[in-house]
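Cross-check.
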Amino acid sequence: MWETVGIPETEARVYEALIPLGHCSADVLSGRVNFTTSRTTRALTNLIQRGLVTRMPGRPAQYSALEPSLAGSVLIARREHELRQLQQHLNKLDEAFQAETAGQHPAEHIEVVKGAPKIWRTFVRVQRCAQREVRAFDKPPYFVAIGEHGDEGPNLEERRFLSAGTVGYRVVYDQESVAIPGRLENIWEGIRSGERARVGTSLPTKLVLCDDSMAIMSSPADYHSGVAYLIRPSSLLDMITALFEAVWDRSVPLSRQGTAESQASMNPLDRQLLGLLASGATDAVIARTFGWSIRTVQRHIHELMQQVGARTRFQIGMEAVRRDWL
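Predicted model, tokenized:
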């Protein structure tokens, strides 16, 4: 644990052993940690330099530990400063890299990424490079099984960014994604955290776009071949960006915050059902999503139709929009 802030295990053990003693000599402390006196003294010397231990006047030398909460705050602040410096340095290197690659041969703007593990790592890396916004097409099949790497694989990066409030996410989900059992609840979790989500029909590819600087994409055919394509700044990247925006504009919002009155008038389950209906999901897809029978799905849809006075599914959607339920 202490290694996180740059404290070796030996020094950490000496520091923690010293805390309950108040103050003591290196000889006494070495017996507590089962180290030689010389090893303990070296650790104490390093801890003094780090500001975690104080040597008291007199002979033999006595040592006392700095208050743990204060020591931890100092170490964490120092490490955060170092990480900020590293990020600034990396940003400068990125600028130099982008300037160098701007004059490359067109073929060098596209990198072929092979193998599911490497593709997954590249999807994660592209997201980590984002400074403002990540835009994505979420479309199965996936290179990483859901839950295999914690949360939803690369989606774990989204949760971190949204939690920190540093990077925005806009995601268009393919109807097939929404239909995966349990997937919708995960999508709602992202929406509650600040993700802007929509549903599209037959998305052309899976895609993650980092700001306007980089993208990784893969079609269903590429999935079976185990390849994806990393796209760097180029006319192709401009076209991919325009494609995302065009698809985003014509996709159906999966959730939208309405007025307090509209939120109160529609329970969460019915709102999810309306979102699926608006996305064009069939009864079979809805049944798999909620774990219902087809008859139960039809009963719920019929109840919604009666609630809004609609005769068709299309009219349900129109009323949902009019009442700000979606």
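Confidence is low (pLDDT under 50) at residues 148-153, 256-264. The radius of gyration is 28 Å. Passed to J.P. for a second look.
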